[in-house]
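question for whoever is on the cluster today: can someone run the full assembly for these? two chains, 264 residues total. i dont have access anymore since they changed the login thing
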Amino acid sequence: MRRPIKYQIIKLTITGAGNFPISAETDKAYKKVTGLQYSGTDTAALKDAVFTKFEIDSNEIFPDGFEVKLIQTGQEVSPNKRFYDDIEERADGSTVSGSFQDAGNATAYPYNARIYLRLENRQDDAKA
Amino acid sequence: MQKHERKKWGLILIDNIASGSVKKITYKLPANIKRCKGFIFSGNVEGSSAKNYVLGRVSLFINNRKSQPLNYIVESKPLDFLRRKYETLKLEEEIEAGSYVQGYYEDLASAVSFPYKIRIYLDCTTNTTDNKINNG
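^ ran it for u. tokens below:
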């Protein structure tokens, strides 16, 4: 039996200042993307790190210049509460695309960055 | 075709803020934005801990200067302090489509480094037309 929620991870390795493409396909077994979260191994890198574009299913989620730190929380926050959850986009194999721009403020390079997508199949999604 | 609302962030960038400077803010809502109902303020440097991490003060008029809902102290804590989710500061009166957001940002000389940037995020909605046909 499929679990109602899945967390899909988009992994980036940031090797220096500059743009790093984000490209993924959401899991076809899930209907909706309902949350986003960023997690990185270098906190200092968050300074001036922005998305130059972030789209799901060709719909803009964040505009050019949107700071990545706005979708990260501290470890003290309960896992369920960490997600930016003001989205409800089609998953079902849709494309996640965008670009992560590092501003050269990391403590050391390379560092790892992860974008978590929360995917769900809810009862009303099944009826849609 | 069905029209439905979608969240869209507006972004006002105040760049190159020097110590003690005052920056003018003038931002016209893009044509595709229907209304805005909240703000988030974010600085790219932290404020001095001795001054409660305060960076500056922002004063904003909305809806072509019909109302002034905001005189607000902008704080910026170190990134290591990152705790709970950022939440928008909600407005009782929404910002209308096609109107201007105007005002000033005043630096209070307590940032740890200069120059710095402030980003003002507007929590907005836009009308989109859904051309897809929902299959049962």
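summary bc i know u wont read the tokens: Chain B touches chain A at residues 6-11, 13, 40, 42, 44-45, 79-86, 117, 119, 121, 128, 134 (CB under 8 Å). Strands of chain B lie at 2-17, 22-28, 33-43, 54-62, 67-75, 89-96, 100-107, 116-130.
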